[in-house]
Amino acid sequence: MLINDASTELNNDDYEKSLLKSRVALEQASDIKNSDLIANSYLIIAANFDELTEPTKALFYYNLGLSYAKKTNNNILKNQFYNNLGNIYCFDKKQYDKGIYYYKKSLIISQKIHDTDQILLTNLNIAWAYFDINKYDDGFSYLEHVNKYQSIHGDESTIVALNMLNGIYYNNKNDNKKASKYFNLAIKEGNAGNEKSDLAYSYLEYSNFLNKIGAYKNAFKNLRLYNKINEELHIEEKLKKANIVGVNLEVDQYKREIDKIESQYRARQFKLIEEQSRNKKIVIVVFLLLISAFIFFYYFIQNLRLKEKNNLNDLQSKIQQNIINASIDGQELERKKIASFLHDNISSLLSSAGIHLKVFTAKSLLQPEEIIKTKTILEEAHNQIRNLSHELMPSLLVRFGLLYGLEDLCEKNSNSNIKIEFNSLVLIKKRYNAEFEMKLYFIVTELLNNIIKHSQATNAKIALEEINNNLLIVVTDNGNGFVNNEFELKEGFGINQIRARINNMKGEFIINSILNTGTTITLKTPILTK
Q1: 246 pLDDT exceeds 60?
Q2: Do the Cβ atoms of 432 and 529 come closer than 8 Å?
Q3: Which neighbouring-strand residues pair with 475?
Q4: Helix/strand/coil for 115
Q5: What pLDDT digit, counting tens, does each position of 489-527 carry?
Q6: Could you tell me where the DSSP H helices lie in 133-284?
Q7: Long-range contacts, stretch 345-350, CB < 8 angstroms, 24+ apart
């Protein structure tokens, strides 16, 4: 039942609930040692990560699930794993040999259980995979099968890709007339249906074909349509991931408090109605007295309602602030984790590989060109990993502290267009709490990015000093400035993030700007030491 519920939640795009239920199902299936149920649990977990565009995680769980599926006689289940593994390796990992291997495994099982729909889809995927690596003759027999049975076993989910692949094949055979015909059919069917990804690829391949035959203007038009749809798909992927940030218990607590207050408010309203009903009966006897009491009571209730409303608004505002803070905390934690992983694991592995390669080449009299190129590639990969790690979490900030990090930030961002000066009344060797330093560093980084992108300033300055156990950071520029209200409307989300972060640190955030003169932003936060 849990597996069925998790599958339903997955189909409804509720990935968080689906993952929670499938993981509970996995625990229970493991307790009773049921390979079929274990494999099904892993299949849903992997499919969730597949939908969330996390191919590495999806691949891990697909492989785990397949090991259990092989212990069963459930060919339909095995087929699902083989097909999904083929998709991951071909379209995400670009490891076509592995992908085609799993597709062919899926094809064998589909033929064994007479699943004609899956046979058609797998033939289509194999043809596509072969075409991606320019093995058109190897893929043509699979494409022929799809052309033959599309009208019987196919549907709108395969027709766009089929026409596109036909266009690619005839383009390779230099049959421009047929190629153009099939590309246009693919685009027409894609615009009429819901296969946005296949439509995007159709625009791209058609653009390549038009470019080949010299129709450059039309090629550029189709390339722009490809980029537009691809960007839409990218945004949809981001929205999917944003929906599974995680269960925020603190926000749930605030929601329960709001529900409690609303319940109390409704109870008081009901009690008030009863009291008013009784008072109306007594009005005849003591009219003047009850009129006075009623007026007093009325103002009392209005005041109570206003207080309740203000409490609700305060709680909702606090929820929003906590959501922003939780999101930023998560981003900073992920930055730190990813930077640490790149530096401590990936970088170390690349260094180790480079050392072994150097030892090998030192012992070998002959150094093939491939070995030399491999050494160069390893060094370049090591440098890129190191640079990315430093961008995510600057080593100067981690090793020497906030002041060194900000000084280096000013130096790196200064150029012929803008000079950024760093001035500190605090000893540059002074260290604070590591999390405190990291938060302030990225806040100042965001402020500098805004100056560089939007202000058109030629000079900027970051000044620091300690006042009464508070750290004061003043960021100024001589740019074009802005009207404060207009800036809040245009840049509200970024400013709200910074303001929420400073408020969470019990600090102050002040913006002063004069149009065509410049801007001064002041941050004041209580100091957190080690």
Answers
A1: no
A2: yes
A3: 462, 521
A4: coil
A5: 444 446 777 888 888 888 999 999 888 889 999 999 999
A6: 136-153, 156-172, 176-192, 196-212, 216-242, 249-282
A7: 346/385, 347/382, 347/385, 347/386, 347/389, 350/378, 350/381, 350/382, 350/385
Query: How does 50-77 read in b/e, with b if 16+ C-beta sit within 10 Å?
Result: bbbebbeebbebbebbbebbeebeeeeb
Helix, strand or coil for residue 520?
strand
**Contact, 58 vs 88, CB < 8 A?**
yes
Q: Is the pTM of this model over 0.70?
A: no
Query: For the CA atoms of 243, 245, 249, 255, what is the dihedral angle to 10 degrees?
Result: -30
Contact assessment for residue 111 and residue 119, using Cβ atoms and an 8 Å cutoff? yes
d(CA 254, CA 432): 32
State pLDDT tens for residues 145-193.
999 988 887 777 789 989 999 999 999 999 999 999 999 998 998 888 8
522 touches 461 (CB < 8 A): no
- The DSSP 8-state label assigned to residue 114 in this structure reads T
Q: How far is CA 530 from the centre of its chain?
A: 33
What distance in Å separates the CA atoms of residue 417 and residue 263, rounded to the nearest whole number?
60
- Is the pLDDT at 11 greater than 70? The verdict is yes
Q: What burial class does residue 89 get, using C-beta atoms within 10 Å of its C-beta: 0-12 exposed, 13-18 middle, 19+ buried?
A: buried
Digit-coded pLDDT (tens) for 288-344: 888 888 888 888 888 888 887 777 776 766 666 566 555 656 666 666 556 555 555
Rounded CA gap, 15 and 350, in Å?
35
Question: Distance (Å, rounded) from C-alpha 102 to C-alpha 321?
Answer: 48
Q: Which residues contact 162 (CB under 8 A, 6 or more apart)?
A: 124, 143, 146, 147, 150, 154, 186
